[in-house]
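Hey,
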Amino acid sequence: MSCWQNNIDTFPHSTFNWISLDGSQVLCHMPPSETYTADAHFGDVKRSVSQHKSLDQDNTSLLVFGKGDGGGGPTMEQLEKLRRCRGISDTVGLLPRVHLGNSVDEFFSNLEKKELAGNKFVTWYGELYLEFHRGTYTTQSKNKKGNRRSEVLMKDLEMLAAYASVQTNYVYPKQEIDDMWEDICLMQFHDCLPGSCIEMVYRDTDRMYAALFKQGARIIDEASEALGYFSKPGRDTVPRIVNTHPWPRTEVVKIPKDAIANGEFYQQTINGCDDTYILARDVPGTGVGIICPADATFSCATARQEANGWFVLQNNTIKATIEGGAIISLIFLPQGREVIPEGKKANQLVIYDDKPIYWQAWDVEVYHFE
């Protein structure tokens, strides 16, 4: 079921079979009333037939009503409105006849039965491009960053916890992980994630994300220790790199100084930063690799500031020139190929005024899409 489809082009069907890009198929119904929070009044019922685009195939439609958009359920007033609408239908006949069903599942079950009986609905192939609410995710960048960090965190800790529970006596913390996912899904609510909630909500999400990251780091540490991937930093520590992706990786990574206590491994100060950088070479997919000692491939990485204030970062593969935080040149050295067009910039942050058509942080595409 979907609604609020388009604000420019009109989608031609209300009830249809949708075959997506991956070939999967699902029976769809877009309520002709064009809302999932109907007040169940005369207009809602009338639109359920006057805006129904599939009447030639089926004359039923779904009216989704209730208090608010958080699952508040029907109110006494809405039920009385529907009772009166049914009375109009039974006596005057100017409205479609209203029938109170038990659930949305019941409505779709009836559609499936009709299709099996030979009532074939039209089929829509490919993407459903719904134009309404283009331009979301425009505010509250800290909240968006927390959401993405939490998704990466959960993928990593679930893999490590699952491996540890299979290979050792570590007990998979199912209840903790379920609780964490519930908090993440709550903060992905369609008003919270785009940034269209009030300030109080984001004070709550800041606290929830902070607690989530702390809890997740603890679970990762416990699972990794059970697997023998690391011990507490000390003189005899042998740090290793855990790759939670399913493909091999070679990357330069930053690690805490206390993770390398015996001085055996390569340390590099880049641009005055007192951090430890190491080369993780050919770490197998969903596996573990040993940290490489000093390596010529890594030692050739340089960072310098030019007289004009530009920063130049270079290794054996790429050379990047940065001006004011934006990349003005990115050269792929093996081929000498410049990636950034002349006069253009990459990694450029652009701030727009929030001038929506209807709602803040939602419909801004008319002003800001190019």
